[in-house]
Amino acid sequence: MTALVPLVVLLPLLGAAATLVLGRNRRVQLWLSVAVLAAVAVIASVLLFAVDATRGLVVYIGDWDAPFGITLVVDRLSAILLVISAIMLLGVLVYSVGQGVADRHRETPVSIFYPTYLILAAGICNAFIAGDLFNLYVGFEILLSASYVLLTLGGTGERIRAGVTYIVVSLVSSLFFLGAIALIYGATGTANIAQLSVRIAELPQDVQLLLHLALITAFGIKAAVFPLSFWLPDSYPTAPAPVTAVFAGLLTKVGVYALIRSEMTIFAENDLTTMYLVLGGLTMLVGILGALAQADIKRLLSFTLVSHIGYMLFGIGLASELGIAATVYYVVHHITVQTALFLTTGLIERVGGATSVNRLSGLLAASPFVAILFFIPALNLGGIPPFSGFIGKVGLFLGGAEVAGSGEGPAPWVIWAVVGAGAATSLLTLYALTRFWNLAFWRGRDELEGYESFLVESMQEAPEGATVTETRTAPVLMLAATVGLVAFSLLLTVLAGPLFDLSSRAATNLLDPAVYVNLVFPGGIR
Amino acid sequence: MTGSLTLVALVAVMFGAGIYVMLERSLTRVLIGFLLVGNAVNLLIYVMSGAPGLAPVLYDGVDPDEISDPLPQVFMLTAIVINLGITAFMLALIYRSWWLARLGDRGDLVDDDRDERESGEGAADVARSSRLDDTAILDILEQSDEEYEERGSEASARTGRDGADPADRADRGGDRR
Questions:
Q1: Does the pLDDT of residue A287 top 70, yes or no?
Q2: For site-directed labelling of A63, which of A145, A416, A464, B71 has its Cα 20 to 30 A away?
Q3: ipTM score of the complex?
């Protein structure tokens, strides 16, 4: 069983090499990429079942003992994120195949798209199973390098401009991360996460705090936490729809995963919960207020993406079993729904020929199917009852009430304030998305000319202005991939019970760092 | 842990200089800043390995306590390789953005969907029309040859066929196409 663990990284990397060599034969390239990601999804699912039955799986690469060699660790949290990432990567790949076939490879040099995409997949998987900080850094670098290429695909002026912001910010965060690793290594003499969990606790509190802040600044930039989030809405929207979808769904969540890991395992003894709660609340509010001013749906969704990272920070800040369980569930929900929404945006751009509400109208009549595909994840993100967004938010709010009522941890009024901010954010998300729905889908084509309403008064266009492309029909494969992801998001509601139980078991493991330490060092730390 | 003060001072200077250069608007300077700060971080990792010792190769007669810590050196090497790759990509990006800036608005639109298709169609038109030109020129040449021959053979019996000639010529041209 442990032999399967490295495969989630190795298969995409080998697949990337093979697809690069086979660059001239697009059909083989395509099928190979789909097969590799399907295999990764299957392996990840097997790992999830195996890990859930036992405590977790550990692989010592090259049989070097734990603190010295590279250790790969799959616990419940890693396994859950591996499965959801593999499914999203596969869904988006199918979508991009549909788009590529329909566009006849006119807009993107597809021969490098598949290898880069697979390398991105390898980086994401590597980050989730890394057992030491330096390997986590390597995982981040793999996925970031791939994302630089994907974001600037085609090298148009717009994408280069957006890419420069993204790349420079990412470089700074990588330097922060590497510097933090150096300091942590200097203080503890190890980079192994399990060993750090023990050794950090032995350091003086002020040294712990310094190392802690250095590390989470790096992760905070990647996860788009409030004061470090302004790069995101300026860089994501310009990429091709499938690329934006996979970035929005997965890249920020890798940062959130790293934050959860550093709070729960590495710095379990160093308490920053109040800071997380405050930052969570601010991330929610500042993000959603930015979203309200956007006319362009891609930018609007990028701002809601930032905003909803706040819910996960809130859960991390609670640091209770229910809070962490709800956070894990919320991460899964948010990956799915945000990816689905960006894919639907790609469909809207094809059917409506634009992404700005000032250019869109009458889409409900033009394409009722796309309307439904947008409406379901939009309600889901806004937190309307039967959907998973509601379940995740209720879980978080209940966790908040529980911690506030227990009298331990952060001050109750801070928690209640953040719960209030969360409720307001949920409503404002719903407002922003239903406003887009009303204008783009319900407004008749004849009303578009000279349309005046207080709804659109304060809206701002994207910096590059509202672009208009010709309207085209959406190919079956793009529709099928989107339908698949929307159906999967509904599945999160249907299977909410078992899934939330799984998240709770993951949270139980996370809250006791000794579980992770015993997993990596079965014989105890020498 | 003991470290070299010279290295620490060097790290500090490189950090300062790197961050200062990184704050400039020019992308090339940002890259230079990134290189400086990246190398400063690498040196920081090296400083963290403590006092230098023997080469970290374990064989008989070497006391494990006397060797240098090999792990930070491994980290450094990996980080250097990653920085090299990123630098290569940044250079390509800088070249591309310089190229776009030099072409101005036209450069921004080079790969734009509509524009590309139009220019593609334009190029196809040029190719098509030049092929048409070629065949038309050949036709005219052949016709003039034939007429010359015809005129040569029918020189004695020149009649009022001039009026019918253009239509006749167009017919023949159409056949050839």
A1: yes
A2: A145
A3: 0.85
